[in-house]
Structures are given as structure tokens and as C-alpha cells.
Amino acid sequence: MATLTPTERKSPEPARAAPTRTGVRRALSSPLSTVAVLLVTVVWTVPSLGLLITSLRPQQDVAQTGWWDFFAHPHLTLANYHDVLFNGGFGVSDGLMPYLVNSIAITVPATIFPIVLASMAAYVLAWIPFKGSDTIFFVFFALQVVPLQMALVPLLQLFSGGAHIGGLTIFPAVGMGGSYAPVWIAHTMFAMPLAVFLLHNFIAQLPRDLIEAARVDGASHFRVFRSVVLPLATPALASFAIFQFLWVWNDLLVGLTFTGGAPESAPMPSRLAQLSGSFGDHWEILTAGAFVSVVIPLIVFFSLQRYFVRGLLAGSVKG
Amino acid sequence: MADANNGRIEIESVTKRFLTPGGEVFTAISDVSFTVEPGQFCAVVGPTGCGKSTTLGMVSGLDRPSEGTVKVGGKVVDGITDGVSFMFQADALLPWKTVLANVALGPVFKGAGKAEAQARARDWLRRVGLAGFEDRYPHQLSGGMRKRVAMAAALINEPKILMMDEPFGALDVQTKAIMSNELLGLWEQSRPAVLFITHDLDEAVALADRVVVMTSSPGTVKAVYDIDLPRPRGSVQEIRFEPRFLELQHQIWDTLREEVERAYARTAGGPVTEGKAA
Amino acid sequence: MWGDTSIKLGNMFGAVAGFLGVLLLLFYLAGFARGRLSRRLAILLLLGPAVLLLLVGIVVPAVRTIYLSLFNEDSTKFLGGGNYTWAFGNSDIHQVLLNTLLWIVIAPILTTALGLVLALLVDRLRGQAVYKSLIFMPMAISFVGASIIWKFVYAYRDPSQPQIGLLSQICMWLGWHNPPNWILSHPLNNFLLMIIMIWVQTGFAMVVLSAAIKAIPEDVTEAAVLDGAQGWRLFANVTIPMIRSTIIVVLTTVMITTLKLFDIIRTMTGGNFGTQVLANEMYSQAFTEFNNGRAGALAVLLFLAVVPLVAYNVAMLRREREVR
Ligand SMILES: Nc1ncnc2c1ncn2[C@@H]1O[C@H](COP(=O)(O)OP(=O)(O)O)[C@@H](O)[C@H]1O
Ligand SMILES: [Mg+2]
Questions:
Q1: Which of C120, C292, C303 sits opposite A150 (nearest CB)?
Q2: What is the interface size between A and B, counted as CB pairs within 8 Å?
Q3: Is residue A116 within 8 Å of residue C20, measured between CB atoms?
Q4: Inter-chain residue contact C129 with A14, CB threshold 8 Å
């Protein structure tokens, strides 16, 4: 969607007002529109509120009455969270804790790897022109079109079996059981086209003087990249980092495919999707589990809203 | 690897073509030849867009000629030229580093230890009159002070060649005069060869030993003038009233005016845009 | 348990440290190169990894998927276009394609329309930041989390018992005393699932469109107002045309997300009860039926559906940038 540029000031942000003196807004202004917006906001918020309240109610209450009954009989407990994280609760063996740890252990490297590798590539494509560099950039750009699904099966075969030509192994099997490596690598690969494209747009517009002065002073390209380009590109890196972090944290498809849902390595969403299918009636477990998984993105959302929106808009066509 | 032990710059029949985004070939400079002797102050003037910056880029090794050769110290430039420093119109200071760290960056890039680099940076800041400002950040300084920092950063590596691409282009007239005087003072001390780009003819004549006039795009060398004003020149404001200065200035302006008018006529058809960094 | 956790987090830190360490070492060593070699090394070491990842991770697998789609389930027998004729001839897949079509038409249009209305209304309100934040918030939540939230809204209980699902309860409050089991009711369930998508994406549409509306030059609207345009006329003749390309970009962007949609279906129904869509069917063919040929064919269909949308999207964005 929107692209990041170093001079970007007017990025769309939900939390900023711009009073318009004339136009449609005033023409449409009426108490009716206030009511309409209020209504939408309520409809948008109530389902999440129901989730939160249910996750905090005692098990019996949840089973016997709707969550709105809470306002008549407020009982709060953190027992569901304890159960869902450590014990597992009714009919569910083991808690979600291992999956939460997996989510963290998957997301941090799967955010750092692509950002570093993509910014390296973006620097070359923007600042070390060579024959064919435009073509390479275009290919990166064009590959954003390819949906994940196109690569899933062959990539899984590659990771579990390696690649061989005749008797020669050209790509070793990564090994699937209980290792994070396949998910890290898969996320890094799938992030590449968008990451290179967005970071290139930003890095190409950095001031030429700063980079050339360092080069003439005798700094190697690596040095320039590390000491000049990366610090200057921090805003773009931060936006993309937030986007990629959320993307990986919220992802189901890649996590499910490349861990097979195993507790040793599978992230939260794949476990929740499983629970939702098989234990759909134990809402105290499901709602607490779901809330555990959404709380981190929500913290990011409410504390870094401006960067969050920028990152999200920049990356919204990914997949 | 070119070496600037003797900083003689020889530009021989250099042509540079660019591939435009539209896919056409654009000739920025064509068959440019001139020489800068070791220790000589050489100014290059010409209309905006005639290829002055392009020429400089090839001397520093940041860019490669399409045809012809650039030699520094007798060796063909291949990769970044050793013993060269650059000063741009923008200050090229890293905003997240202090003044001291910015000046020390050159020696650090060259491989000096941090303590030594900082000691030298302190010394150079003193020489440009900024002792006491070591811990400030670039945005806390005035334009003239930032220029001084940039000058210290350019000279700290004791270059054999100093390349300046409109270094004072963005300054007001008074600050520009002060900075020019200081530049001359510092230059007298170590005497690197200087390649100084400007489109201010007065500035070129006041500072340089040699003035190269380039034609409008595609740039070629139109004429080369040796400036025989005695050194040390003293204040650049005062030299402008000396008869010999005026004589040279008129002579060069006659050559240059035609090119500037031609370049202007070319852009006047469309919206007249002021070239940012010429 | 805690031991397990520390091993896992240790692995994570080890991987990150190892990765950065190797890079720094390579950079350090390569930094000694001079002249032409230094340039070549820089290109190789900085660009090489990204290109390699792209080749191994996307280009080669995508080509291989096309190749696999021409074979039977375990890739031992060449079928030619067999998997594609299956996809267009099988009545189950007809339902899948029909559902997918419904999704990509209805969900994006409703999302964009609602986003546009909100964009027009919300900016004038006091406390607009709060409204915008709350409406945008679902964007932060995973589709899995969103699905669970809505699954709870749609939860069914026998009408004789106290309800726990909000939707059923509202129906009862409104006087409909035996609401159906929502998720099982075909074709209604498709639309109920679409609501989740709309719930998640409307905030995105609102924020983008609101920015576009703010970017309309004041003098354009002012001139129109002086010419006598008011309210709806102004909206239809000035505002909409001015942000037309943004509307299309939002529409196609949501459409692309919808086409690739997998998580909601997987979490809500697993593709049962007549709610299957292309992306989830592809997954089921690959990982429950283990039919790589059919999965490949469905992936290719998905790809072919996405390409024109992305191409159009890019063309719009480009044109918009040129105009500016
Ligand atoms: N990398 C490049 N690609 C294409 N054209 C360029 C490039 N660099 C410079 N040019 C063109 O070459 C001409 C000369 O540029 P430059 O050397 O910057 O002029 P000057 O410094 O004399 O104003 C200009 O018309 C400019 O547009
Ligand atoms: Mg220039």
C-alpha cells in the first residue's frame, strides 16, 4: 500500500484530527451521524469485550449464563488464565505456556532475520548500481504477487527431505521435528519481496552526501551500511519490524505447515485453531487462550499506534 | 588503487553517459580534459546540470568514466581514490553523533583507534575555532558552525586532494565570505590540491589558481584560465575591488555567460526549476 | 517446564546472536578488500543472501508447484491437465469456487463501503481518536483470535437453556425465540464468516480513505461549494471522484487478502458445513488428503486470480503517484 519515504510526514494515523472547514463533512454533519458512528464502534467493541469478560469469569458462570450476566453478578477470577497456561483445563492436556514460548521464540528471529537481510539487499540495489540490478529489483518487486500457497508444498518437501541431484545433496534436510529452523527460514523467505521493496524505497532516498562522504573517507560498503545507512533508516526499519512482528505473531498458515502443530515448536495460533475445533464448548479455556494470544499485539497497538499504523499500511498487501 | 602521494589530477578525454529511468542514454559530460597540479587550487564553473558533480565523482572514484581515464598521482582511478576528502553543499554530518564523533569518523573509517581519532578531532575542532563545542549535536549549531565542522571533518585525514562541491552554496553572503577566508587560511597550511565546484564566478576567481569553465550540457571544457593574483590573497571581500581581479572576472564572464544563457533557454521552455545542487 | 522454556529461549537468542555474529565477521573480513574486488564482494555478500532466499524459497517452489499440479497425488503419474479438469468438474469444488467468488465480491465491497462512510463521518466527531482506535483495533488481532471472538458471538445453545452466544440472545430479546444454530446454517454461515473479515478490515479501509479525503485540496471542495454543490451532490461529484483511485486500491487490497484467506475458515468450521474456500481447500488437499497434484492445481488457480488484482493495484498506485 502506502510506501515509506524518508520525508513522509503525512502518514495516515487514526489518532490525529484535521479540522475541515468546508465540504462533505459539514454537509453530512448531524446528530444522526454521531449515532451511526457510535453504533458501529459499539458493535466493533462488544465482541472483544465479551471475550475479555468471559475469560475472567469462573467456569460455572461461563457454562450457565451469558457473559452479559456478569454485570448483574460480577465475579472475577484469574483461574482460567492459570488453567489455560499451565494445566490445560477441561479435556485439554497441558497448558498453552509451551506454545506461548514457541510464539516468542519464532517471532523474534523471524522478525530480525528478514529485516537485516532485506536492508542489506536494499542498500546494494539502491546505492551500488551494477548491470542487472534494476532487473533484480523488479523481480523482487514482482514476486510479491506469489501467494504463500504456491510455495508451501515444495518448500516443505525441501525442508524435510533436502534436495539432491543424482547422489549429490545440494540442500541438506533441515529436519522438521520440533525445530524452529524451518519456520524461521520460511518466514524470512516469504518476507523478502515486500521487505526489500519497502526498505529500498526508503534507503534510495537517503542523502547522497552522507553516504559518499563516508565512502571517500575510506569506509567500505559494509562500514557505510552499518554506520550510516542502518541508523538513517531506523524509522523505516521500525515500521517494517512492527509489521513483520505482528505478521509472524498472528500467522497461522506458515506456523501450522512448518511445525505440523507439534507442541515442541508450534506457535499459539495453530494451537488455538486446534482447540477451537475440538473443545469449542469450553469457552473459559478458549477465551482465556485467545486473550493471551491477542494481548501482545494489542499492547503494541496501543503503545506504538502511530508506527503500528504506518507499518501495517505499508505491508497490507503481503501474503 | 590510485594513490595521491603527489596529488596531480589528470582528466583525459572523459565521457560519462547515464541510463535514464526511461531507458535512454544521456550524455552528462563529453570529452572533458584538464589537469590539476599538486597543491593547486582549481575551481570549476559552469551552468547547473553541466556535469560538474559528475566529474568530481569520477575523480574520487565513486563513479567510473564511460570513456577516457582519470589519473591521480599518475595512476588510473579504480575504486575509491586514496587521500581524497569531500565537502558537499549539505554538511554530510551524521545527526545522531556529536560534533567530536562526526569529525573523528574519518580517521575511524581509515582504521585509527578511537582515542587517537578523538584527539585529532579535538585538535581540528580547535583549528576551525570550535573548541568547546565538541559535545554538541549538529542540529544545535548554526549553519556556519556546521560548515566549520564539515571542514574539520574533510581536513582531518590530511588529504592530498580536497574536493568541494559547492561547499558554501547554501550560506548567506557574509557567512560565505568568512568561510572562504578560513578555507584559504587552512589550505595555506597543508596545501592539498583542491577541486572546487561553484557557480559563483567571483568566488572562483577570488579563491583559485586555475578556473575551468564548462559548457552547458553535455558538459565539455570551454576554457581554462590561470589566475595570477598573488598569494596569500587576504580577504576575499577586498580582493574583489582590485583591477586585476575585475579584469579576469570580466574575461571569464564573457565566456561563461553564453553557456549560462543557453542552459537557461533550455529550461525556460518548461517550468523554470532552480537546480538543487548544481 | 521452566527448563524447557529456557532451552527454547536459549535457542532463540543463540540463533539471533549466531546470525548477527556471522554477518559481522563476514563484513569485517570483507572490509579489507580494496578496489574493484571490494565492490564485487559487497554486492555478493549483501545482496546474495536475499537473492538466494528468494530463489530457494519462492521462485523454485512456485515453479515446482506448477510442475506438481500436472501429476497425480504422489507425483508418480503424469496427468496433464487432469487436476484442473477435476477442479472445474467436481461439484464439491464448484461449491468452493462459488464460495470464494461470494467472498471476494461481498466482503471487499462491504468493507470498503463501510470504511468510506466511517471515514466521512468520524473525522468531525469529538473524540474521533477513540472511535478510530477502537474500530481499527481488530487489525492488530490475528484472524484466529478474531475467529474465536466471533465464534463465541455465534455460539448456539438449545433455546430452552440460558444463552451464551450474544447473537442468539439478541434474537431472543427481539422476540425470535428459536434462533438457528448459526454456524451450521448454510448458506447463512458464509455471510456470518464474512462478517469477521469485515470486522477486521474495516478499520484499515477507514484509515486509508480518511487520509485520502484529508488530502483533497481545500480549494477544490470550496470551489464546488461556491458553485452550489451541497451534501450528497458534493459527495458524489467531488469527493468520490477525487479519491477514486484510493477506493480501488483499498478494494483490491481487501480482495487479495480475502482470496488468500485461510485462517478464519480453518478456525471456524474447518471448511465444513458448505463454507469451504479455495485457500483452505488447497491446504486440505495438501495436508489431509496428501494430494500434491490437486493442491498444486488449486494453488495455481489462486495465483492466477491474484495476479490481475495486484497488477491493477500497482498500476493504480503508479498513476496516483504520477499525478501528484
Ligand atoms: N546517476 C545519474 N543518472 C542519470 N542522470 C544523471 C545521474 N547523475 C547525474 N545525471 C545527470 O547528469 C547531468 C549532470 O549532473 P551534475 O554532474 O550533477 O551537474 P552539475 O553538478 O554540473 O549541476 C544532469 O543533467 C543530471 O541530471
Ligand atoms: Mg552538482
A1: C303
A2: 54
A3: yes
A4: yes
Listed by number, the residues of chain B in 101-130 with a beta carbon closer than 8 Å to a beta carbon of chain A are 105-106, 109-111
How buried is B107 (Cβ within 10 angstroms: 0-12 exposed, 13-18 middle, 19+ buried)? buried
Pair B128, B111 in one domain: yes
Q: Over the stretch B210-260, which tens digit does the pLDDT of each residue have?
A: 999 999 888 899 999 999 998 888 788 888 888 999 999 999 999 888 888
Query: Considering the domain A106-268+294-314, what is its CATH architecture?
Result: Orthogonal Bundle (1.10)
Alpha helices in C55-154 (DSSP H): 60-68, 82-89, 91-122, 128-136, 143-153
Please give the pLDDT value at position C237. 81
pLDDT of residue B217: 81
The answer to whether residues B54 and B169 belong to one domain is yes
> Does C58 lie in the same domain as C102?
no
One domain, residues C49 and C121: no
Q: What order do you get walking across the sheet with B9-19 strand by strand?
A: B25-36, B9-19, B67-72, B75-76
A145-192 residue pLDDT tens:
899 999 999 999 888 877 777 666 777 776 656 689 999 999 999 999
The grid coordinates of residue B30 equal: 563529453
What pLDDT sits at residue B45? 93
If we measure between CA atoms, which residue out of B191, B165, B213 comes closest to residue B60? B165
Please work out whether the CB of residue B266 comes within 6 Å of at least one atom of ligand 1.
no
Cα B56 to middle of ligand 2, angstroms: 9
Q: Which is more confident, A237 or C122?
A: A237
Which secondary structure element, helix H or strand E, spans residue B36, and what is its range?
Answer: strand B25-36
Which cell numbers hold the place of B68?
577516457
Is residue B248, in this structure, part of any structural domain at all? yes
- Give B41-57 pLDDT, tens digit per residue: 999 999 888 999 999 99
Domain with B41, as residue range(s), is 37-65+79-83+161-269
What is the identity of the amino acid at B252?
I
The total domain count for chain B is 2
Angular region, B31: left φ>0, alpha ψ -120 to 50, beta rest: left
Q: In what order do the strands lie in the sheet with B41-45?
A: B84-87, B161-165, B193-197, B41-45, B210-214, B221-226
A189 to chain C, minimum CA–CA distance in Å? 5
Q: Which ligand is nearest to the CA of A129?
A: 1
Give tens-digit pLDDT for A261-310.
888 899 999 989 888 877 657 788 889 999 999 999 999 888 888 877 77
CATH number at residue C96: 1.10.3720.10
- Residue B182 confidence (pLDDT) above 50: yes
Q: Based on the domain organization, do B105 and B238 belong to the same domain? A: no
Q: Whose CA is nearest to atom 11 of ligand 1?
A: B28
User: Are B261 and B238 in a shared domain?
Assistant: yes
B199 within some domain: yes
Q: Is residue B9 part of a domain?
A: no
Q: Average pLDDT over chain B, rounded to whole?
A: 88
Judge if C221 and C280 occupy the same domain. Answer: yes
Is A3's pLDDT higher than 60?
no
| pLDDT of res. A9 | 37
Q: Based on the domain organization, do C291 and C229 belong to the same domain? A: yes
Q: Tell me what pLDDT residue B4 has.
A: 46
Domain region containing C298: 90-323
Q: Is the pLDDT of residue A5 over 90?
A: no
Interface membership of A233 toward B (CB under 8 Å): no
The whole-angstrom distance between B102's CA and the closest CA on chain A is 11
ipTM of the complex: 0.91
Regarding whether B115 and B201 lie in a shared domain, the answer is no
Domain co-membership, C290 together with C238: yes
Q: Say yes or no to pLDDT of C83 above 90.
A: yes
What does the CA dihedral A155, A161, A163, A169 come to, rounded to 10 degrees?
A: 150
Flag whether C100 is in a domain. Answer: yes
pLDDT tens digits, one per residue of C271-288: 989 999 999 999 999 999
Q: Residue C138: inside a domain, yes or no? A: yes
Q: Does residue C238 sit within a domain?
A: yes
Residues B103 and B241 in one domain: no
Cell numbers given for B205: 576567481
Domain assignment present for residue B111? The answer is yes
Number of domains in chain C: 2
